[in-house]
Amino acid sequence: MPKSENQKLKLLYLLRILSEETDEDHSLTMPELLEQLAAYDIKADRKTIYADFLELEKAGYEIIGERVGNNYNYSLASREFELPELKLLVDSVQASRFITEKKSRELIKKLGALTSRYNAGKLKRELMYSGRVKTMNESIYYTVDKLHAAMNDGLKVRFQYFNWNVKKEQELRHGGAFYEVSPWALLWDDENYYLVAFDGKDRKIKHFRVDKMLRLSVTDKKREGEKEFKDAAVESYSTRMFGMFSGKDERVTLEAENRFAGILIDRFGKDIMMIPTDPEHFRATMNVSVSEQFLSWIFSLGEGIKITGPESAVKAAREMLARLNKMYTK
Length: 330
Description:
By secondary structure, the protein is an alpha+beta fold. Helices cover about 40% and strands about 30% of the residues. It contains twelve helices and 13 strands.
């Protein structure tokens, strides 16, 4: 009787069965393994299964055999990801505004394939808290891939850039003209992806929201702006910038009550300079892009923290407060 086409793939099907049907809480007996293989039209016996176990172990897969009553139960112990790690990844995907709802479902389904079907069900239940605002640009994944390719090859990119209008429509900036820039880095800030690039026309470093890019393509022109990129100290963008809104880079000093120490460390990191001024207060100094977003963040913290220097930053805060007071004064 001729062997089925699947017979030569017996080892792969055995690994699939162990991956999908077993975990730390679920196992299969030898008769159950043979029955599952038979469902794929694959013939096997105990002797060949034991030999397959040895081959899988040589390849780095740990197969556990545990005696339960009169039977031995078998399960796959070694996996690329443990369940807590997969839950963390699922939470990250679901919480990310950068990833669309559709792509979130696709990615989580793929993550579920990395564990047993029982644990995959647990991952699905983790999604029940969803409902966050997500990006609506489905092409963003291909955009990111192209940007990485351009950076690896040292080439410029061109794209159109848009904003949303009050009609909830995409409105192209610069009349639909294409931007052509030299890409140098991708940054994650304020739950969004940004491209950090050198604009050859303006001769300076700029940043662009990746999900607002359209019709991106990689050119055959060599990128430029390496010196400007290094001088911009992009590695500190996430602490200097607020929502990637630019302003004048300054070394700002804050005076605050001790209860604000944790908030500042969370935002600027443990390297922030903090000097006690009395038992209840401290002075902190950091490099910041003094934009309206930074000032708004300081104001949102309420009483007990204020900007004390430099004078230009204090003046900017006063002017912003005056404008806001005028808006809300009858």
